[in-house]
Design goal:
PyrdxlP-dep_Trfase_small; pyridoxal phosphate binding; Aspartate Aminotransferase, domain 1; PyrdxlP-dep_Trfase; binds pyridoxal-5'-phosphate; pyridoxal phosphate; Aspartate Aminotransferase, domain 2; O-acetylhomoserine sulfhydrylase; alpha/beta
């Protein structure tokens, strides 16, 4: 092998994987087993005491999942990763390591609708309080910081309109506040944006979307950047204080720059239980091998569709950061020079009714609540994903009544445009 560090596409195919040492299998096998035999009693004891790394039980770790973890950590430039059952499970596991009841975290208001629900309602029942800030107004993050703030949460490319977040500016606020910056990188994927390069301390993904990429498997992943010092001021006791369940070890002291990933595994996944099935890990790994090729095509198609819509008389506006006239185009050039992603919104002159009508007339686009599939997808957020919000909050989060969201797939762009043309014209 040469000394050249492998490029992104090479990592997407190879990182974490080796031919199976027993059988020579070249594709990563699906280790469909709940548990793993110990060499002897000492080995078992050292695994349980975290003195040795190894497999115990698939709720805590699995060799197929481990390849996925190593691959995504490599693609994101992190020190370690933990795969879990879904993007939402990843968010719970992350915040459980950071917040005690009564603590707060600041979240950008422009988020996946499910995350808005999870943060507002489910997390409240744990005593974790979300404070909203406006990603277009960095000072709103500064103003939201209190002594109980434990983290800041943003999306790199934000739902639903595909707006681009100024990660570096918000990471400066997080640094000053002494809290980690968590970036949900689902809509960008590491091919378009690597948040750790811009100051993120933790990256989270719904693997369900572009990384898996084929709309067939749920999964989530947490990437530890290894950048945050958890020991300061006793603010993060899960990481800095002796753990009674592991003979009093302190995770940061013992595991250094991958302590957060370890905490998520041995305290979060072990005790909360949202393990990823090895079968799903296999499906997602297979998807990741073609991530660079797919993202190129997703972005090329999205730009063509956005340009078509921008010129159509029934369309009031298009919100796609890849268009030179878009308000996020400068940020897109800085953070996502290879393409502004494939999820964006547009609004129709006919308002709510026109949105519902369009969705019902489209044939090639599937009407469903997902993004990041090979297939092109459409949804009317105001009547579905964001319907729980009041009208003002809908508009603030980019999901007003006239807004339609698209997730552009990898079909022929001419066919996508023809489908939109017939549906808009009819
Ligand atoms: C889908 C999605 C999630 C939630 O992920 P699941 O795998 O559905 O639990 C979180 N954030 C973003 C940006 C998403 O698109």
């Amino acid at each position: 092998m040469s000394d050249r560090p492998p490029g992104f596409s090479t990592l997407a195919v190879h990182a974490g994987a080796q031919p199976d040492p027993t059988t020579g299998a070249r594709a990563t096998p699906i280790y469909q087993t709940t548990s793993f035999v110990f060499n002897d009693a000492d080995h078992a004891a050292s695994l349980f005491g975290l003195q040795a790394f190894g497999n115990i039980y698939t709720r805590i770790g699995n060799p197929t999942n481990a390849v996925l973890e190593e691959r995504v950590a490599a693609l994101e430039g992190g020190t370690a990763a933990l795969a879990v059952a879904s993007g939402h499970a990843a968010q719970v596991v992350i915040l459980q390591q950071l917040l005690q009841p009564g603590d707060e975290f600041i979240a950008a208001r422009k988020l996946y609708g499910g995350s808005i629900n999870q943060f507002t309602h489910a997390f409240k029942s744990f005593g974790w309080n979300v404070v909203w800030a406006d990603p277009d107004d960095i000072s709103s993050f500064e103003r939201a910081v209190t002594p109980r703030t434990k983290a800041i949460f943003i999306e790199s490319i934000a739902n639903p309109a595909g707006s681009i977040t100024d990660i570096e500016a918000i990471s400066t606020v997080a640094r000053k506040a002494g809290v980690p910056l968590i970036v949900d990188n689902t809509l960008a994927s590491p091919y378009l944006i690597r948040p750790i390069d811009h100051g993120a301390d933790i990256v989270v993904h719904s693997l369900t979307k572009f990384l898996g990429g084929h709309g067939n498997s749920l999964g989530g992943i947490i990437v530890d950047a290894g950048t945050f010092d958890w020991s300061t001021g006793g603010k993060y006791p899960m990481l800095s204080e002796p753990r009674p369940e592991y003979h009093g070890i302190r995770l940061q002291e013992t595991f250094g720059n991958f302590a957060f990933a370890i905490a998520c595994r041995v305290l979060g996944l072990r005790d909360l239980g949202p393990a990823l099935s090895p079968f799903n890990a296999f499906m997602i790994l297979t998807g990741i091998e073609t991530l660079p090729l797919r993202m190129q095509k997703h972005c090329e198609n999205a730009k063509a569709v956005a340009e078509f819509l921008a010129g159509h008389p029934a369309v009031a506006s298009v919100s796609y950061a890849g268009l030179p006239s878009d308000k996020y185009n400068q940020l897109a050039r800085k953070y996502a020079p290879k393409g502004a992603g494939a999820v964006f919104t547009f609004s129709l002159k006919g308002g709510y009714d026109a949105g519902v009508n369009l969705v019902s007339k489209l044939q090639l686009f599937s009407h469903l609540a997902n993004v990041g599939d090979t297939r092109s997808l459409v949804i009317h957020p105001a009547s579905t994903t964001h319907s729980q919000l009041d009208d003002a909050a809908k508009v603030k989060s980019g999901a007003g009544p006239d807004v339609v969201r698209l997730s552009i797939g990898i079909e022929d762009k001419e066919d996508l445009i023809a489908d939109l043309e017939q549906a808009l014209g009819a």
